[in-house]
Please model this.
Amino acid sequence: MSAILDTDFESHRPRLMALAYRLLGSRSDAEEVVQDAWLRWHQADRSTIREPEAWLVTTTTRLGIDRLRLARNEREVYPGPWLPEPLSADDAPGPEQQADIAGQVSLAFLAVLEKLGPEERAAFLLKEVFDYDYPQIAELLGHTEANCRQMVSRARTRVQAERPRFTVAPDTHRRLLERFMQAMQRGDRDSIIALLHADARLVADGGGKVTAVGRPLQGAERIADLYRMVARRTQDISEVRLGHVNGEPAVLRWMDGRLQSITTIVMDEEGRITQLFSVLNPDKLRGLL
Model:
């Protein structure tokens, strides 16, 4: 019997992990939540479980909401800006990674979700990403349908206000990132400025473990000055190349054979970089490659 039940759980694990990761923005936290769901699954009276998938999604969501509430308190005292923990990093994307882009796991999107409350975030994801209907969401979250509609509507408005208003072709995105990587590697201040929107914003997460700007850096010239300084200090000891993080193009920087940082960008309709997200916290990069 246990083998059948294990098979049942494993068949749903990818969906549970996808939900938990989008809910928490952390690979390690998502893995813990899914493991807790597995434990509860094996402790439950399965004779009362009519729909395993619904039971598992409900359990994972509620565990995720509880973990997110705790995480939000932890992130309030986090040293410097907090960015999502990447789920995957690859030199070249495969079909699964490309599908993840459509499934909305870019660092920029996950950063926007951080502005939502725990239940609001869960309701939004269940509706917009996992295509649950309002009666299902209401039962799952223990709210009325009307309340769930309000939560999703508020979340949708906030997310749309923060997200880019157009879709960039993957080749265009990659070409711009490659030009930026080359200019960054040279420490070419003028070239970096030319690639950035005047009000571009850099968010870097060092987690208090490594040196990183302690607050978001605003303005093309200030960002270019930072990268010029970094290039002068690391040009001979670092390796930089293009890769993919959560399925989107990214700059991967290596030092002493260790992944030191990943950087992704957001661009506008005129082909300029408006936002940069750099994860340097070694705890968030460990095990990615």
User: Anything to note?
Assistant: Residues 112 and 162 are 7 Å apart (CA to CA). The first strand starts at residue 89 and ends at 90. The first helix runs from residue 2 to 24. Strands lie at 89-90, 196-205, 217-218, 238-245, 248-255, 258-267, 273-279.
